[in-house]
Amino acid sequence: MGPSDILDLTAADLMSEHPVTATPDEHLSEVIGLMKKKDVHEVLVVENGELLGVVSYDSLIKRRGLPPTTKVSHVMNHIAHIEEDCSLSLIAETTLSTGLRALPVKRGKDLVGVISRTDLIWSILNAPELAEASVESVMSPSVTCVYENESVSRARHVMQELDARSIPVIDEYGHLVGVIGQKDIVPMVLQSQKRGEDAGLDRGPLDVEVKSIMSSPPVTTTREATVKEAIELMKKHNISNIVVSEKNVPHGILTQIDLVELLVVHGRGEEVYIQISGLEEGPEVYEEMYDAIGKTVKRIGKMATPKVLNFHVVKHHSSGDRFKHSIRARLTTEHSMYYAKGFDWNLFVTLDEVLDQLERDIKKEKEMRLDARKRKSRS
Q1: Disulfide-capable partner of 207 in 10, 64, 203, 339 (CB 3.0 to 4.6 Å)?
Q2: What CATH number does the domain containing 238 carry?
Q3: Number of DSSP helices (H) and strands (E) in the chain, helices first
Q4: Do 119 and 13 share a structural domain?
């Protein structure tokens, strides 16, 4: 299979034919047990062959006080699906836009399989131009960590803020000591109903220190490693994120999302992929945001070649009827990654702050490159 041939792959070529499923009447404790046994992060909810929804670690970690006896039908989310003739590019884009680790595949009304992120990123190995890229060129260099003696509750909060599935853990000296993920925390979220405040205890399950449940030692890689080596490492250890470290200090993180983005960029060519996640407002707000983003992308396009632009919105509850919004953005261009964040009472003021920051950073880097060329030409 040649470098461009992966774009000819369809869902039928990539899917697993035996998805992990549950019925809507099963209890949450049973589904969590199934997730652990099968080592999956999402379970499809099916009744009489009909796909009803999905239960995922991602959604459960955001809920509070869920009794283990809660029925699946009360916590499942509706889910997008793809057809078996769906192209690799569209599968990758749907994976990003939904935030799901696995997408159900249907033939008409019938559920015929499931495609996981792992299935997707394995296709990269068949495209040498992608597989031989360095980890540094694909990783997220902006890595947020938690300290080993911080509470699990704090780690959970950070993961929600970042929309992350796992985060590195460091000691007081900034040395990498472990990783904590959603699958470590979700069972404790369920325990909080039985052992937390309702049980009259001073400390709930989420008040324990991160080091008591983190995975250690963490699996790491280097900036110089290839994408192929990183993917094979993920497969070997059955993980979705790898910390990029140097001298035991984290300098970045390579996630399956980063690798799916690589596929999106590969499939889109010169087009820019824009994604907004976490937004709770209606479609008219999306349209206004996309309009503002589009204008900035046009200006940025004169200085760099934008490929993927992600925004994650978090609505912070405050007293009264007012809310604050935070937005984190990541822009992947042809050669670099840029990060920005904003926080304000007004969503669009926050967005403008983030877009201005991205534009300033790109302009600054362009000026630095021009200065470097001038100095080189003089020497």
Answers
A1: 203
A2: 3.10.580.10
A3: 12, 16
A4: yes
Q: Sheet with 337-344: list strands edge to edge.
A: 273-277, 306-317, 323-333, 337-344
Within a domain: residue 186?
Answer: yes
| Sheet containing strand 110-116, strands side by side | 82-83, 102-107, 110-116
Q: How far is Cα 7 from Cα 127, in angstroms, rounded to an integer?
A: 10
- pTM of the predicted structure, to 2 decimals: 0.77
Is 310 in the same domain as 229?
A: no
User: Which of residues 127, 147, 171 is at a domain's end?
Assistant: 127
Of 131, 83, 128, the C-alpha closest to 110 is 83
| Spatial separation of the C-alpha atoms in residues 164 and 130, rounded to whole Å | 24
Question: pLDDT tens track of the chain, all 379 residues?
Answer: 443 478 889 999 999 988 899 999 999 889 988 988 888 888 999 988 888 989 888 778 777 667 888 899 988 988 888 999 999 988 998 888 887 888 999 988 888 999 999 999 999 998 998 999 999 989 887 788 999 999 999 998 888 877 788 899 999 999 999 999 988 888 777 665 554 444 444 456 788 999 999 999 999 999 999 999 999 999 999 888 999 999 999 999 999 988 998 888 887 767 788 888 878 778 888 889 999 999 999 999 989 888 889 898 888 766 566 788 899 898 988 777 888 999 998 999 999 999 999 999 999 988 888 888 888 777 6
Residue 241 half-sphere exposure, CB side, CA atoms within 13 Å?
Answer: 22
Structural domain including 142 reads 129-257
